[in-house]
Amino acid sequence: MLPLKYLAKLVILSLLILGLPSIGSGQLRVAKVFQDHMVLQRNQPINVWGSSSKRKRISITFNGRTYTTRPDKQGNWSYTLPAMEAGGPHLMRISSRKEAVMVSDILIGDLWICSGQSNMEWTVANSNDAVAEIAAANDDQIRHFKIPHSWASTPQDTLAGGEWAVVSKETVGNFTAVGYYFARELRKHVDVPIGLINTSWGGSRVEPWMHPQALGDYTLPNLDSLQQVAKEKNEKKLKELKTKHGELGEKDKGVEMGWHTQDCNDSQWVKLELPGLWEDSGYEGVDGILWFRKTVELSEEEAAAGIELGLGKIDDSDWTYVNGQEIGSNVGAYAKDRVYKVGAENLKAGANLIAVRVEDTGGGGGIYGADELLYLKTVKGVRSLVGSWSMNIGEATFNAGAGFQVNHTPTILYNIMIHPLLKLPIKGALWYQGESNANQTGAYVYREQFANMIKDWRQRWKVGDFPFLYVQLANFMQPVQEPMPSNWALLRESQSATLELPNTAQAVIIDIGEADDIHPRNKQDVGLRLSLAARRLAYGEKEIVYSGPVFREMKRDGQSIVLSFEHIGEGLVAKDKYGYLKGFTIAGSDQKFVWAKAQIRGSQIVVWSDKVKDPKAVRYAWANNPDDANLYNKEGLPATPFRTDTWPE
Which of 171, 101, 178 is nearest to 143 (CA)? Predict the structure, then answer.
């Protein structure tokens, strides 16, 4: 329930709007980020800008004052309003002669950019405790603006789209989970509105988010050539698909044609092996709706008792049928395990048809995941559904980047998903990206790329060295039995190296990842740890402990190595029932690392191994998934992975 004072202001604003001419298809335009429910940055001059086809005077009325400007010869106009204190809601009226644009319910507070790849884009609805979290969402002082996936070959002045949303039970499920939980934590300590601009793209590398000058000597691709190659590849793929599947309709008619029923003859359908994304089976670049069918035999006893159907993960959405009846669906839940209960009323003894309608809106598509997630469970046991399924295409499209990876191509995301925002003053930035750069050639050079991107963004935003807070890669993949090189560990090191830049901090999350999922569901702790850094760097809480232990220096002590740390807070602790430290390895001059013993001694840690008599180097949490690493400070923040050596990986 909104406060009466707040409701009264909105009523007044609404009455004012009703008395104004509508915009329709007028010639006056305002930057797309200026929409109802927006958040403007407090205590910074406020830029307002847009365009007009007529060089008439433009008036901007905001917070009790009116300002005027005129478009330049190209039709672009802008005006810088004075800095203002936090507050609202406010109404902004931008007018020129008979035209007027009204932006209502504007709050002045702190604006944070949320960028990166899928773990930043990951929504509240797909995170831990989603039902409870959504039901509890009621802070209308948190606002979210989602920029759609878009790319351009040159810097653009205008966003491709997007809209502001106020936190509510109806909207928060689509918010960036990391950004939302960050803002929610901040609001407990900072009583100002928080705006989140979500400009992220799953699977993106760092290079697409960089201005050409930040890339240095990097050779930019010829986008015209790439697009021509993509066009030719798409035409060839379309021809191949028509040969296999006939004419492809613009709208799926699968249900209308009975593809979900046993009356459909699928003998001419293509056979695909599941689980697996269809891109890996010859359908690269194909988005749209594909149907999968499989027949299973049930005894009278099994049919009468009902079954459990496991379909693994489905990217993005599914509508699942058994014997022509829909038994469940999930929309936009590309990382959710599908498990459906099927009652006896939908089953029969003998042949039973499973039909799955799968919709993919971009990127990988299909029924995928671990083999054991694709199963049929009856009263007589579990049967695997891994293997050949019949497939047909209900609707096919090709995304603009088919033939080259848009979100891997340098500069083209920066050009339209960052550049149009540069006139908008901000409080700081949140960044969660790196997985796509964690390969053999990219993990080490990332430290230079990432630092260059941060410095370039700061220079172009012209609001100083704003706080830049980022998330270090989580633990992922299966743990190893013996120490070995790790590209993910190397990329984490590159991320830590960026702390040399002023006003930066990282949230270490090697303790909350998931071995079999690159998208950890625990986004609450990610947001919390980022908020601790923000409270220190952006809001000046000097006494707050915002980081776990960070390696500072090592000293040799006989057959042991003694390590010293910063950010130890109230002291070092081992999260272990018996107090044992884990996750340390040690090596001599042969550079062969073995598991080590480690012990906390006051504010230092002593590391040794009976197998290494002349130790030269120590590593901690140096693995893709350092699942046993358990060094923390007493404030509960995990230590940053590190190595004391600079040996080649």
Answer: 171
Instruction: Please state, in angstroms and rounded to a whole number, the distance separating the CA atoms of residues 424 and 42.
Output: 11
Instruction: Specify the CATH number for the domain of residue 321.
Output: 2.60.120.260
* φ, ψ at 550 (rounded to 5°): -125, 125
Dist CA 524 CA 468 (whole Å): 19
Of 262, 341, 357, 337, give the one whose Cα is nearest residue 309.
341
273 or 234, greater pLDDT: 273
For residue 414, give both structure tokens: 């920066």
User: 635 is written with which tokens?
Assistant: 């404030």
pLDDT, tens only, 294-345 = 999 999 999 999 999 999 999 889 999 999 999 999 887 777 889 999 999 9
Report whether 315 contacts 307 (CB < 8 A).
Answer: no
State residue 70 phi and psi, 5-degree precision. -135, 150
The pair of structure tokens assigned to 12 is 């007044």
Single residue among 398, 430, 460 that ends a domain in this structure: 398
d(CA 306, CA 341): 8
What is the distance of C-alpha 436 from the center of its chain? 12
State the DSSP H helix or E strand holding residue 181, giving kind and residue range, or none if neither.
helix 177-187
521, 472 in Cβ contact below 8 A? no
DSSP E strands in 275-347: the ranges are: 276-277, 286-298, 307-315, 317-322, 325-330, 337-342
Asked, for residue 560, whether it belongs to a domain, the answer is: yes
Of 398, 424, 458, which residue is a domain's last? 398
Residue 469 inside a domain? The answer is no
Work out how many domains the chain is built from and give that number: 2
DSSP state of 39: E
Task: Give backbone dihedrals phi and psi of 67, rounded to 5 degrees, phi first.
Answer: -125, 150
Looking up tokens 């988005």 gives: 287
| Dihedral-angle region of residue 140 (phi above 0 means left; psi in -120 to 50 means alpha; beta otherwise) | alpha
- Would residue 334 count as lying in a domain? yes
- Would you tell me how many other CB atoms lie within 10 Å of the CB of residue 61? 16
Residue 412 falls inside a structural domain: no
Domain that includes residue 245, residue range:
232-398
Name the residue among 629, 633, 623 with its Cα closest to residue 603: 633
Alpha helices in 384-434, H assignment, sequence order: 414-417
Residue 437 has pLDDT above 90, yes or no: yes
Residue 205 carries which side chain, given as an amino acid letter?
A: R
Mapped onto helix, strand or coil, the DSSP state of residue 148 is coil
Q: How far is CA 138 from CA 37, 72, 184, 247, 546, in A?
A: 15, 43, 10, 49, 27
* Cα–Cα dist 425/81, whole Å: 12
Closest CA to 287 of 315, 247, 268: 315
